[in-house]
Every structure is written in C-alpha cells, then in structure tokens.
C-alpha cells in the first residue's frame, strides 16, 4: 500500500464515518492485504475504486467489517456496570416510577457482550419487577458482521466464565460442550441495529444512559466534539454518558458534567 493509497483510504473513512486511521497503517494493511489477494485486486487503488463504485454496497460493507471489528468481552471495565447498578438505575427507577421505562443505548455494541451484560445488570437490579418495566436496550454498530453474531447470542463457554456463576445459570442455556446461548428473556430485551454515528440521531425519546466505550479513539478531536454534543442533545436531563476507561473528552468543549473518569452527566 503506497502512502497515496493509504491517504485516500483514510480520507474516505473519515469523511463518511468519522473514523481516523491515519496512525494505523500497519494495522490497516495487515487486515486488508489478504482480502485483496483473495479477491484478485492488484492494487489498493483498484480496490478503492471498487468500493466507491459498487452500488450494492457489498465491498464497502466488507471493508467496514474488516476494519471496525473490535475486541470485546463480557464484564469489560466492570466499574461501569457497578456504577450502572448502584447509581444510574436507582435514579432511573425513581424518575420513571410512573412510566416504567428505562432507555439505554450501547452505541458500539460489537459482538454483543456489552449490551447483553447491561441487560443482565438491569434484570438483576429489577428482580421480581423485571417483567413490569420496559427495559429494551438499543445496541448499534457499524459492522453488519458483528451484529449478525451478536443477534445469535451464542458464545464459547470460556467467554461467559467471567460472569458471576448465578448469572451464567440464569441467563444462558447450554448448547453443547463448548457453546452457550443467551436466554430469550435477555435477547428479547436487546434490539440490535446497524448505525453510523456520523448520521443524525433518529431518537424520538431521550436516553437515560449511553455507553460509547473504546470507539472514540478512532475519531479526530473535531469529530469527537461533534459526536459528544450530539450525545448531549439526546440524553435526558440527568442522564449519563459512559466512555472507555482509557478515553477522554474535552471537558471545556461540552456541557456534560464530569462525574468521575470515563463517566459524565447531563445537568438536571
């Protein structure tokens, strides 16, 4: 991949999806080289021409699937789920005691571990009242491939062993010696959709909590500021915004209040 070809790819992804891979040439080339060879492309220019002219969108979706798939796992950065249980959900339940409506968005849901973990936290918190609340969680991602995987809800045994044993028993059913499937009552409460964070947010009601963890590392500072301001607009007053523990946002460029590292709140 020449520098000119890489710059073209970087500009294409950033203009459409806000993803800035300018410092990740080795990773990009490592992920795409085999794909180009398998599919008969002689150069990255030829490949990018195919991506930009393919009206079916198939080549573009393949590229997004290859470049945007992120490593994730159940109970990742557990302090966020503990904060959800101990602080956010008690606030939501008190606020929505008449509507019984909990609105949470996992904005970079990847292969499903994050939204399913959130759903399990909500179920455990509500206990016997679980069925009386509308706690459907929105889970979105740019990659159609990881969304298909997530919707199946099937995970290797070692993937779920990080969860408390009682959660494993309550929320998964054994398929075979190696695989477990998320039970229907949890799967029904997670709605997976493909979504580009650069698009307008189509929400008719505001969110109580938004998880957007470990994705803004791929965005420029300008794109991050625009995205955080859009998130501010779709949060309920008092709603919470959670990012990855290694991420940060410019506190001077947002009206969100700092709660603690990686957790912010819209003023009441």
Please compute the radius of gyration using only Cα atoms.
20 Å
The CATH fourth-level homologous superfamily of the largest domain: Vaccinia Virus protein VP39
Number of structural units classed as domains:
2
Give the uncertain stretches in residue-range form.
Answer: none
How is this structure best described in words?
The protein has helices at residues 3-17, 25-38, 44-53, 58-68, 78-95, 113-126, 144-152, 157-160, 165-171, 184-187, 221-234, and strands at 104-106, 137-141, 154-156, 172-174, 179-182, 190-194, 207-211, 235-242, 257-260, 263-265. With 268 residues, the protein is an alpha/beta fold. It has two domains: 3-68, Chemotaxis Receptor Methyltransferase Cher, domain 1, CATH 1.10.155; 78-265, Vaccinia Virus protein VP39 (Rossmann fold). The strands form two sheets. A seven-stranded mixed β-sheet has the order 6-2-1-7-8-10-9. α5 packs across α6. The relative contact order is 0.13. The mean pLDDT is 92.
């Amino acid at each position: 991949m020449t520098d000119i070809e890489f710059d073209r790819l970087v500009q294409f992804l950033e203009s459409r999806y806000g993803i800035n891979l300018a410092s990740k040439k080795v990773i990009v080339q490592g992920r795409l080289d085999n794909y180009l060879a398998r599919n008969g492309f002689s150069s990255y220019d030829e490949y990018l021409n195919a991506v930009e002219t393919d009206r079916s969108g198939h080549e573009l979706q393949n590229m997004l699937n290859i470049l945007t798939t992120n490593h994730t796992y159940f109970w990742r950065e557990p302090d966020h789920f503990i904060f959800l249980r101990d602080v956010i959900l008690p606030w939501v339940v008190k606020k929505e005691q008449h509507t019984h409506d909990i609105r949470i968005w996992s904005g970079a849901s990847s292969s499903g571990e994050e939204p399913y973990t959130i759903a399990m936290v909500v179920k455990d918190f509500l206990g016997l009242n679980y069925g009386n609340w509308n706690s459907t969680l929105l889970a979105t991602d740019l990659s159609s491939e990881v969304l298909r995987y997530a919707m199946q809800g099937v995970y290797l045994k070692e993937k779920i062993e990080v969860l408390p044993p009682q959660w494993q028993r309550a929320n998964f059913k054994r398929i075979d010696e190696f695989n477990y499937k998320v039970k229907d009552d949890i799967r029904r409460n997670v709605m997976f959709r493909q979504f580009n964070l650069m698009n307008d947010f189509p929400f008719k009601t505001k969110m109580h909590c938004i998880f957007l963890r470990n994705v803004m590392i791929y965005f420029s500072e300008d794109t991050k500021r625009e995205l955080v301001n859009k998130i501010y607009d779709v949060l309920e007053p008092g709603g919470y915004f959670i990012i990855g523990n290694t991420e940060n946002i410019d506190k001077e460029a947002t009206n969100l209040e700092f709660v603690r590292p990686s957790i912010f709140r819209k003023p009441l």
